[in-house]
Amino acid sequence: MSRKLAAEFFGTLWLVLGGCGAAVLAAKFPGVGIGLLGVAFAFGLTVPTMAYAIGHISGCHLNPAVTVGLAAAGRFRGVEVPGYIVAQVLGAIAGAAVLYVIASGSPDFTLGGGFAANGYGEHSPGGYKLSASILCEFVMTFFFLLIILGATSARAPAAMAPLAIGLGLTLIHLISIPVTNTSVNPARSTGPAIFVGDWALSQLWMFWVVPILGGAAAGLLHRWLGADDSAVDRMEAAVEAALNPSEPLAPATAREPR
Fold first, then answer.
1. Among 37, 189, 236, 251, whose Cα sits 20 to 30 Å from the Cα of 30?
2. For helices 81-103 and 64-72, what crossing angle results, to 10°?
3. Where are the alpha helices (DSSP H) in the chain?
4. Cα angle for residues 117, 124, 67 (degrees, 5° grid)
5. What does the alpha-carbon distance between residue 14 and residue 22 come to, in Å, rounded to a whole number?
6. Where exactly are the structural domains of the chain?
């Protein structure tokens, strides 16, 4: 279990450093800034890179909403949920700390720029009100979990799962950065909020409650539809894959935790 938690810690650190780092350090760099499109791809790229690095160890959740959603779908043991969430939050804080040290090396840096924190109302990049932000975060997290649950199904091409999930997260950011700066991940929201303080901490509740509800709803729907993989389904898929090498086995995230 300690290895799984360590993997989640470092994986979430990388997600925050990679995604928020792109937003803070590179988005508006004079003349060659990567802009909204670049930030969206930066967040998306953190997922497949970590999936290949730690997916076989912890399943590469990197997100409390993903952990809760997988548990709701019957893909993850509930007893492991608290430990995963703590490791993810600590990793996000560590990632934000590393980013803060790097960013503060510039004479132009100020936390007043937002430090990639999530917000609504006057702290939304586009000024979107709370109700719109709640709906956006719920729907985006809901579909993110549907993508994850489908991509990691025993009968889905295993090698393509990280790519599908990463592209899904990229698309989510392309849609919702103007609304909330895109959370869909309570840990990712917590890291920068701790450094910004003030309004970011007072609005943090929404970026915990809504993504977790969205993830849980997707997990429950996935289970109700009968799309979750039973042990028999996985055995049949393994036999089929052995008989037909062109069909690779599912990734670690699609198997029962040991």
1. 189
2. 160
3. 2-21, 35-58, 64-72, 81-103, 130-151, 161-180, 186-196, 198-202, 206-224, 231-243
4. 50
5. 12
6. 2-107+115-254
Tell me the CB-side half-sphere exposure of residue 161, using CA atoms within 13 A: 29
User: In CATH, which superfamily holds the domain spanning 2-107+115-254?
Assistant: Glycerol uptake facilitator protein. (1.20.1080.10)
Distance from C-alpha of 112 to C-alpha of 184, rounded to nearest angstrom: 23
> Please, which residues have CB within 8 angstroms of residue 110's CB and are 6 or more apart in sequence?
none
Q: What is the tens place of the pLDDT at every residue in 167-217? A: 999 999 999 999 999 999 999 999 999 999 999 999 999 999 999 999 999
Amino acid 41 reads F
CA–CA dist 249, 237 (Å, integer): 7
Looking at residue 155, its amino acid is: R
SS3 49: helix
Length of the chain: 258
CA distance 161 to 179: 27
Token look-up 């809504």 returns: 210
The whole-model pTM stands at 0.85
**Spatial contact of 67 and 219, defined as CB atoms under 8 Å apart:** no
